[in-house]
Input
Amino acid sequence: MPLERAQPSAARRLLSLDLFRGVDIAFMILVNNGGMAPYHPLTHTVWNGWTPTDLVFPTFLFIMGVSMRLSFTARMARGEKKSTLLAHVFRRFVILFLLGLVVNGFPFFPLHTLRIYGVLQRIAICYLLASLLELWTASTRIKIAVTAVCLVGYWVLLRYVPVPGYGVPGHAIPFMDMNRNIVSWLDRRIFPGRLYVGTRDPEGLLSDIPAVGSVLLGMLTGTWLQSARTLQQKCRGMLLAGIVGIALGELWNPWFPMNKNLWTSSYVLFSAGVAAVLFALFYWMVEIRQWRGGWTYFWLVFGTNAITAYVLSELLAASLWAIHVGPKLTFERWFYLRTFAHIHPPGVGSLVYAITFVLVCWLPMLVLYRKKIFLKV
Output
């Protein structure tokens, strides 16, 4: 599968954004590999509500939106045609989606039950749709309007559209029932037997609608960063926007609860708000205060090869699960029981295991970084 070899240019890359991306992808790997007795903050909320883990993926989409805006603007400023950019967008969409299928199927690829949805697939779909909007118009007002339509329209869809065989949410069935909702119902019709959880999937088709909103909020942040304002004004603006996003998410929460599995609109606003606040912090430290010492090195190794690091972590985890050292004993479980399981309390042992897993994934990324190899899909 073709990959581009590229070297980041200081003129077009924002160091604070690379660092933020590196921190986020490191935490994504951390929370996905929590061992046998997960450390509670590294677990997802079962349904409504949120934990720090639930904010990792939408933060990545937010960061992707910022990067997309900066990248498209820079490439068009260099004279690249929209047709060229469009071809690259479709190529990247296909590669990301195929990589997602590889991650889902590795190493045995059970074609009859292969999960079609996934993290990389959601990234691919959101990237495609947001890119098409960006190439169609640079209007900030239109992007704000599309974001509002995505979020409000999704609420209307879940709240008022009858679920076939069950009825209208909030009347015949509970609103946002775990299995009896329009999102899960459609996924079961499209891909029966191929969902992450038998009756539903956290990266389902309809929930791509608000997930696009997560990317667009990042793109709007990128537009703000390209304005003629001072660095301090940009930082304050992101911080204020983040606080507003958090407040709006909390205000909407009683009527449309935050829910990662359904990627609800309140969850989009809240998670984007948190991401904006965190990005403002990184921006202040790196771009304004110029704190660019050795502390940045670890995160840049991940941040400049984020997708590669994620794919590597997923393939490694699948390999450890697939290798058996006994009739019902995987290598992962065998290794954990003989090492980290002896650390007490068990949650701490799980956390140490997760950190160790992140460090193992970091080493090959370090080799790429030192060789100045930055793989972009």
User: Anything to note?
Assistant: The first strand starts at residue 4 and ends at 6.
